[in-house]
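Before relying on records like the one below, remember that each one covers exactly one chain. Contacts with other chains, cofactors or solvent are not represented anywhere in the record.
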Amino acid sequence: MSKSSDWALKEQEKNEMKDEWDGIELAELDYFREKAMMDILSHYEILLANQLNSCVGSREKLEGVAMHHLEFHATIWRASTETLPNLEVQVVIDGKNNCFVSTGSPGFVDFFEPPVGMTLPIRCWIHTHPFGAAYFSGTDIRTVSFWEQNMECAYVLGGDGHYGFWQNSFSPKALEIYMNHEPVKLQTWGEEE
């Protein structure tokens, strides 16, 4: 992406945020972003501590700490849609079971600064589509395609029991979409994506 198109994208995001947060001060936005991230991290640390207390082994050796935990997903969704007014949130659980959280705009989320200390492989990438539809956008497909060899699984969370699940070992070119925990659709993509 060129610097000018990168700048244009950031300007568009800023304008979307202004529309979404009409009348709210930037300091308030920062406060709610921090609260959303802390709520997610606090829930993750509770789940991690519970699993460490019930297992023998180190933090790094634990499997599936929170990635498939529905209440953890609900915490992420609430952070995206209640704490923040429909802004995307992403959570990355790395190879040592560290949790990294960032917030974005209504239609895009990224780590605007590199997450210090993140290790590969990425065990799970979870992000929200606060507008309610769970599917992989073109950006999401490029993300999992780029990280395919170093990412185990990913979720995209939509509203009202709608979510998508991608797993490298199942089918790296497909997202299984669920409604109320029942598969309803398979989104696939090809090599050209």
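The chain has a mean pLDDT of 86.
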